[in-house]
Amino acid sequence: MRDLDDCRVPLVSEPLNADQAERLAPSFKALGDPVRLRLLSLIASHAGGEVCVCDLTDAFDLTAPTISHHLKVLKETGLVTAERRGTWVYYRARAEALGLLSTVLAVPRFAAAQGTAA
Amino acid sequence: MRDLDDCRVPLVSEPLNADQAERLAPSFKALGDPVRLRLLSLIASHAGGEVCVCDLTDAFDLTAPTISHHLKVLKETGLVTAERRGTWVYYRARAEALGLLSTVLAVPRFAAAQGTAA
DNA sequence: ACCTTGATTAGATGTCTGCCAAAATAGGCG
DNA sequence: CGCCTATTTTGGCAGACATCTAATCAAGGT
User: Fold this and answer.
1) Protein CB footprint (7 Å) on chain D nucleotides
2) Scanning every residue of chain B, which has its alpha carbon at the shortest distance from the alpha carbon of A94?
3) Which of A104, B49, B85, B88 has the most neighbouring CB atoms within 10 Å?
4) Which phi and psi angles does B107 have, rounded to 5°?
């Protein structure tokens, strides 16, 4: 999702316009499911940077098509990429995408401190 | 949402367990709607730290009940707090909650660089 | 060619979500 | 108290979503 590039601004520093919100929301929506969050985390935290779908399927009590569906959602929002090598398909997390979303939610240090104190 | 406290770990550093994912997902889901994203941004970026509902309603082509509904979702996930003072209700962003989610998505600097390069 | 394993797509179904109109609640004021 | 404004709750509906089964596609091996 290259069209997120101009959204790399904390939402706390100025109001998101309708357009930016429209482009960012799908990414957060993708993260809004526990299975997808875990999938992404499994992929992103895996040594070597990539994970085979077969390894992911085993980690859940869900059918392969369901996992595949969730992976597709993550892929469509640009949070992961997929590459087939022979029989297997490997997924990788897109650090840029993750970083961008992290930045959007980031809070200036002293403001965070205020929040914690409150 | 105090029970998010032990989720303050980047999703990229180790796999989220089912329990953590279950607790984090609702927050991301709340952010997964463009209207709520804008509402949160309007609230979080507002000078003085708080915004009256009446000001929020005017910013959208939506009815008051719809805005109220979205604010409720944000409130239930702990992203904002509401306080009534006289006739009006004021909403504030919870910087802690925002910061936590930002941390969960954060990517170590060099890993982010790799991602950008790829 | 055929069969097997890995993965995705298609179709069906029950649940959830976003929206609105109407009704209810909360405060302030004459 | 009765009225007015601000906000939330309720009820209902159309569209979206998570999940499953069955079918299909991809790559390898026999």
Assistant:
1) 5-11, 17-23, 26-28
2) B115
3) A104
4) -125, 130
Query: B36-56 burial, b for 16+ CB within 10 Å, e for fewer?
Result: bbbbbbbbbbbeebbbebeeb
Nucleotides of C under 7 A from a protein CB: 5-11, 17-23, 26-28
B117 close contact with A: CB closer than 8 A:
no
| Entry pTM | 0.92
Tens digit of each residue's pLDDT (9 = 90 or more) over B76-97:
999 999 999 999 999 999 999 9
Interval A62-115: pLDDT, tens: 999 999 999 999 999 999 999 999 999 999 999 999 999 999 999 987 655 554
